[in-house]
Model the fold of this input.
Amino acid sequence: MTRCFLPLALLLGFASGVGLLGSSPSRAAEPAQKVVRVGFVGPSSPSTAVRAVAQFRERLRELGWIEGQNLVIEERWAEGQYDRLPALMAEVIERKVDVIVTYGTVAAIAAKNATSTIPIVDAAMGDPIGIGLATSLARPGGNLTGLSMGWVDGIGGKWLEMLQEIVPRLTTVAAIMNLDNPVERDLANELETIASARHLKLRIVGAGDADAVDRALEQARQQAQAFVLSADPIIGRKRRQITEFAAKHRLPAIYGMREFVDVGGLISYGPNVSDMFRAAAVYVDKILKGAKPGDLPIEQPTKFELVVNLKTAKALGITILQSILLRADEVIR
Done:
């Protein structure tokens, strides 16, 4: 009996131990999912960038990054005051973010000046090589990558060409631009050259802050028959006031972003900004999974969209040529 007892006890103990081990994985707590932090610094305001930012968040969700589960977004907004950008970048850096996301050239410069180590994704910058943010588009080097708006590749000529198609006997055009933005300065120079070649007088009107936009509109109204407005965040932030001004004074204008047309602008021609923000989310996903920003090529837009608001054209007494409507990606009726 004694000889049987010990082996049986050991056997029972061993069996019990195996049972406990076998059941432990189902009873053990799941390992905590890593939470990443993204610093999002917008140079304008959430109300004026709502479509693009919503697309950014949606694409992140599609890629598996869910706010409240494995993602925290530290969101800051400069409200059109570019001098606030350095402090806002410092704030998100203090929050130990894994990547910084922003848009616009001035914001990209502020981010690059704030850190040389934290990855930066800019969803819509100007000429990154010309302003020294990258060594090349294919391999930008450093800690910044993202998407370029491609403003200095002949887009100004398209704007003036379409205005001449829309406005018979057009002689004078005003371009309202933020000349504190280096890309806007380059674009202004391009517009001046093209306007001369197209036998147009061009008035460049600077608007370096939100208050200056109102003054620029009045100045441009007195000097020109039609407007050009680009996509600088300071100007974009005032898009509803701008389109209302144009409607009140029956002034045709072409815009660099479709968001102006969504709020009553006449016509826009430029990259699809919502698509660019979705692409920026893909960059963030790649970086969070281990890619180095300096190895990720800076994309340039391959498609520019033309959007026409026929309601506004009718209110302004303007007939949009069929040749423009056939080229349009979207017509708002």
DSSP finds 13 helices and twelve strands in the chain. The mean pLDDT is 88. The CA atoms of residues 146 and 170 lie 38 Å apart. The two ends are 97 Å apart (CA to CA).
